[in-house]
Amino acid sequence: MDEPVFRKFADIKVKEIAPGFFSSLIHTETNTINFIEVTKGSTIARHRHVHQQCAFALEGKFELVVDDIPQILEPGVFAVIPSNVWHGGTAITDCKLIDIFSPVREDYRQL
Hints:
mainly beta; Jelly Rolls; 1 helix; about 110 residues; about 5% helix; about 50% strand; six-stranded antiparallel β-sheet
């Protein structure tokens, strides 16, 4: 095993991937897991990518718009966004989100 099995979040450098979006990124062989703290009012513009994305809200409310359909992500509500589908959103409150991407986000690995 090249990578240690057990690690600490404190050892992951937090990166601001977009204004108001502060990410702790974990990359595996097949996925990128993005633990994000988002400041209220911060917006991610409508975009798409080849990765399938599963989006979860741990705390707060985030309005996610997928294929022009808005939905509030909050604890208990999640989204599975297919590859190449347009999406974006805005933090209604400060929030903590988790996004899981498959395959690995090589662009995020370069951050």
